[in-house]
């Protein structure tokens, strides 16, 4: 029995604006009629993820992922159809009368989520309900974490026992699950808990499922060297990918497309106390490209708030290089403090003000970070100018450049304003020369692997050339570099336009239904046409959503590229006749090319009779063209 019939499904999807749905997870910007963002399904720095609000689908021109609202939820959250259906209904505010899905069947890793969730529950109970927990809660209170914060972040306590968790969970889970969970160590045929006598911070994925833990020592007599111990890597936990608090921060991040990056749990909690919710932490590990690519899906601007010590400043330096200067600002914590310490010293209100108002640009950070320790050394000053001058020269504002030059002069004891300005001016010339040699001022830019579109010439279809295959080819291929497709020939553009008309105009499809001689030039379009014919015969028309669901990934990608074409709603017999004429002409040219090859072969073999026969055929073929 079907979960939901086609009419109910289409009605549900009609009540959801796919742009609003996807904007929860991807930062989208208006791009003509559609919306554009960084693809959440593959790493990229230039947007190629296209969302068509009018037709209710998405398509990535980079990796080819395509689909409707249901498909997006399935792909993004890695869930089955039923769970995606329920989530879409919840988003639309509609109650569906279907059974909840068996998540164990939908997600093979669900059993690992379950064991981690149960471990988090046990740790939390120990913190909140035992004598040892009372001491640990007092420790947390002294650190500024009260019971309300303990509950919000589900903080727990691992008791000072070697196998408490194992004894509690082993009756409920198979040995294989226990071994893969990262919660236990195995040695000499004995099993030990991975965490003991530690404050436990559950690590959740962006959907709130517990995937691992970080344990902090809290007692003065604890002689263990590491302040924090993280879960080992498992099928559901990778510390180079996961970010703490992302599930709670995601709604605010999705709304304003900005995120604060901090180092640890206590810093995030301090920011929350200050009313700043769009904060995540990399849990003590260095920021990775995986972290950045994950956040780029919904973030346009990164605010780095790392510790004020030398390690924190080095982390900022690496993070700027990883993210890129254009997308970053930095909050420098005074007095070498971290955010948690600053909140304790000056209060939550002051921390909130600092995070919002005391941001600096990367160049300001580098002026301080790269400043020589020995300013009496002339060569060190020269090297410093050589490092900073190109950065100043790349700043667009002359006023800002002047301010940065003055800042350098204040630092350097042996240089005057005009000397530093000359160094920057030299770099300005280099910037200008490089810019002009790369992209001429009045010339369009085309990437090396794409040739410039051909000039538009009038043709027999339209005196202005606006409907010609050449114009269509230019319009189709000359998109922003981020949206460039593999270059389409003019005949491929014609084929795609004809299929588009067949999809949305049943009369056009019927015109070719019984034409045994009609066929497309390229096999992939012919295969799509054949499937369209089967769909139309089976359902008396084409429902794009249903049709797409029946295609494999490669053909689905082609289908969504075609229906994304920006064509007028109206179609005329003349337009279809012109498209068919172009197909026929191309087929004749293809046949002519084959005859010319045969003529060359006959000539080489000395077959004069065959040469004469082919010559006559070629003359007749040219007349048809």
TrEMBL record:
Gene name, Swiss-Prot/TrEMBL: dnaG
Co-factor note (free text): Binds 1 zinc ion per monomer.
Zn finger spans (CHC2-type): 39-63
SMART domains: TOPRIM, ZnF_CHCC
Annotated family: Belongs to the DnaG primase family.
Source taxonomy: Bacteria, Bacillati, Bacillota, Bacilli, Lactobacillales
Organism this protein belongs to: Lactococcus fujiensis JCM 16395
EC number per UniProt: 2.7.7.101
Designated name of the protein: DNA primase
Cofactor(s) it depends on: Zn(2+)
């Amino acid at each position: 029995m079907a979960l939901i019939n086609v009419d109910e499904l289409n009605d549900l999807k009609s009540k959801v604006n796919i742009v609003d749905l996807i904007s929860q997870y991807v930062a989208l910007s208006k791009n003509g009629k559609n919306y554009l963002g960084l693809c959440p399904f593959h790493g990229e720095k230039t947007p190629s993820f296209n969302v068509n609000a009018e037709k209710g689908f998405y398509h990535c021109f980079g990796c080819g992922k395509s689909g409707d609202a249901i498909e997006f939820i399935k792909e993004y959250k890695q869930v089955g159809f039923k769970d995606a259906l329920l989530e879409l209904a919840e988003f639309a505010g509609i109650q569906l009368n279907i059974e909840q899905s068996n998540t164990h069947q939908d997600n093979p890793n669900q059993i690992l989520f379950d064991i981690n969730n149960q471990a988090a529950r046990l740790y939390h109970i120990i913190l909140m309900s035992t004598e040892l927990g009372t001491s640990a809660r007092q420790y947390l209170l002294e650190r500024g974490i009260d019971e309300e914060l303990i509950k919000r972040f589900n903080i727990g306590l691992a008791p000072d026992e070697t196998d408490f968790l194992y004894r509690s969970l082993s009756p409920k889970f198979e040995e294989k699950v226990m071994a893969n969970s990262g919660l236990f160590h195995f040695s000499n045929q004995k099993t030990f808990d991975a965490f003991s006598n530690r404050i436990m911070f559950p690590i959740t994925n962006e959907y709130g499922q517990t995937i691992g833990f970080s344990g902090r020592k809290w007692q003065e007599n604890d002689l263990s060297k590491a302040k924090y111990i993280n879960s080992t890597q498992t099928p559901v936990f990778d510390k180079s990918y996961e970010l703490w608090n992302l599930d709670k921060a995601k709604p605010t991040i999705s709304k304003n497309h900005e995120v604060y990056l901090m180092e640890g749990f206590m810093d995030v909690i301090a920011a929350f106390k200050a009313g700043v919710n769009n904060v995540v932490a990399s849990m003590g590990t260095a920021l990775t490209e995986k972290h950045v690519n994950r956040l780029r899906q919904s973030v346009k601007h990164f605010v780095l708030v790392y510790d004020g010590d030398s390690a924190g400043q080095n982390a900022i330096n690496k993070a700027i290089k990883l993210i890129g200067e254009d997308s970053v600002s930095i909050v420098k914590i005074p007095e070498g403090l971290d955010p948690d310490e600053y909140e304790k010293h000056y209060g939550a209100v002051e921390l909130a003000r600092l995070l919002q108002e005391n941001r600096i640009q990367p160049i300001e950070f580098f002026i301080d970070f790269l400043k020589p320790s020995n300013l009496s050394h002339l060569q060190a000053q020269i090297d410093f100018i050589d490092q900073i001058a190109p950065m100043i020269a790349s700043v667009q504002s002359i006023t800002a450049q002047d301010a940065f030059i003055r800042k350098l002069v204040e630092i350097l004891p042996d240089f005057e304003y005009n000397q530093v300005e000359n160094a920057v001016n030299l770099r300005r010339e280099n910037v200008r020369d490089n810019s002009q040699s790369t992209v001429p001022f009045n010339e369009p830019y085309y990437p090396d692997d794409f040739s410039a579109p051909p000039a538009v010439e009038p043709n027999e279809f339209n005196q202005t050339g606006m409907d010609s295959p050449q114009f269509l080819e230019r319009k189709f291929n000359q998109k922003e570099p981020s949206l460039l497709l593999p270059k389409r020939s003019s005949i491929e553009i014609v084929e795609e336009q004809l299929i588009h008309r067949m999809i949305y105009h049943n009369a056009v499809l019927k015109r070719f239904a019984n034409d045994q001689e009609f066929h497309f030039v390229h096999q992939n379009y012919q295969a799509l046409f054949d499937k369209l014919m089967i769909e139309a015969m089976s359902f008396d028309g084409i429902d794009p959503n249903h049709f797409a669901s029946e295609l494999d990934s490669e053909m689905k990608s082609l289908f969504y590229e075609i229906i994304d074409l920006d064509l007028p709603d109206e179609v005329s017999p003349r337009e279809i006749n012109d498209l068919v004429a172009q197909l026929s002409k191309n087929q004749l040219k293809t046949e002519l090319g084959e005859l010319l090859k045969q003529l060359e072969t006959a000539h080489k073999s000395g077959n004069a009779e065959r040469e004469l026969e082919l010559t006559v055929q070629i003359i007749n073929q040219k007349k048809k063209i």
